[in-house]
């Protein structure tokens, strides 16, 4: 079963084009280094919950949209090797100069597949 890295973060609407450019670069780099898929989604129907919600989870502020993204890999071992290559890739080093989001509010983690239909 595939291994998945998942991400949830908030991006200011006025920086969404900057984020798209970063995501296009990141997707290209991850795929070149062996990821099976790379997906970035912009929230369309994510109400602000009373106790929990995607906007609450990333402390989304007025004028920010929630991004939900994931990358798939053949295995955890492949993910670790691919990520090492991605983070060493020179194309990714400048992507951190002026990021279009606050990395401190990003939620991320690796997941083993439980079910895939």
UniProtKB/TrEMBL annotation:
A Pfam cross-reference name: DUF1428
SUPFAM superfamilies (alphabetical): Dimeric alpha+beta barrel
InterPro entries: Dimeric_a/b-barrel (IPR011008), DUF1428 (IPR009874)
Protein name: Uncharacterized protein YbaA (DUF1428 family)
Organism from which the protein derives: Sphingosinicella soli
């Amino acid at each position: 079963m595939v291994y998945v890295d998942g991400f949830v973060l908030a991006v200011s609407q006025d920086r969404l084009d900057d984020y798209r450019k970063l995501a296009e670069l990141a997707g290209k780099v991850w795929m070149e280094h062996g990821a099976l898929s790379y997906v970035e989604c912009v929230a369309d129907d994510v109400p602000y919950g009373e106790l929990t919600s995607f906007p609450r989870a990333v402390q989304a502020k007025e004028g920010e949209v929630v991004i939900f993204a994931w990358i798939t890999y053949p295995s955890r071992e492949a993910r670790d090797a691919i990520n090492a290559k991605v983070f060493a890739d020179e194309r990714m080093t400048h992507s951190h100069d002026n990021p279009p989001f606050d990395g401190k509010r990003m939620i991320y983690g690796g997941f083993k597949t439980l079910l895939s239909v």
